[in-house]
Amino acid sequence: MKEPMQDLTGINEVARMLDITPRTLRFYEDKGLITPCRVGAIRVYTRREIARMRLILRGKRLGFTLRDIVEFLDLYDTDPQHVEQMRALAQRCRQRIDRLAAQQEAISETLVELEKIEREALARVPKPRRSRVVLSSDAAPREA
Question: How many Cα atoms within 13 Å fall on the side-chain side of residue 17?
C-alpha cells in the first residue's frame, strides 16, 4: 500500500529532523539500508524510512557495526512478530555490554596507574623555595 503524498518528507527536512547531513542519508541509501522514493530527481522519505534511519542512528550511537544493523533491519522486515529480531538484539546487546565492561575495567586500571605515576613524578619535583625579604634600615627591601 502506497503512503499518501503528505507523508513524504524531503531530504533536507529529514536531515534536520535527525540532526544529520543529507550526505549521511545518501550514505545509508548507497549501503541499501534505506530506499527513499523519488519525485522526479528529488529524494523523499516515508515515515518507514525515517523510522529505519532512527534505528540505524541509534545502533551506531550504541556502537553496533553496520553489519549488525543490517541484520537487525533484515530481521525486522522478515519477522512480523519481531521475535528473532529481539533475540538477536538481546544477544548483541549482551556482547556489547560485556565489551564495554571490559573496556571500563581497563580504563579504571589505567587511571589508577597514571595517577600513581603522576604522584611519584610530582614527589620528585623539588618544591619551589620561598624567597625571604630582608628589610634593612638603610636600603629598600631585597631578596635574600
Answer: 14
Q: For residue 87, give the nearest of 77, 76, 100 by alpha carbon.
A: 76
Q: How many CB atoms lie within 10 A of CB 98?
A: 10
Q: Name the more confident of 98 and 85.
A: 98
Q: Mind listing the pLDDT tens digit for each residue in 21-59?
A: 999 999 999 999 999 999 888 899 999 899 999 999 999
Which 8-state DSSP code applies to residue 31? T
Average pLDDT on 91-104 reads 93
pTM, entire model: 0.65
Backbone angles phi, psi at 7, to 5 degrees: -90, 5
Cα separation, 30 vs 33, in Å, equals 8
- Which helix (H) or strand (E) segment holds residue 43: the answer is strand 42-45
Q: Find, among 53, 58, 65, 62, the residue nearest to 29 by Cα.
A: 53
Give the separation between CA 10 and CA 23, rounded to whole angstroms: 13
Classify residue 82 as left (phi > 0), alpha (psi -120 to 50) or beta: left
Residues 6+ away with beta carbon under 8 Å from 6: none
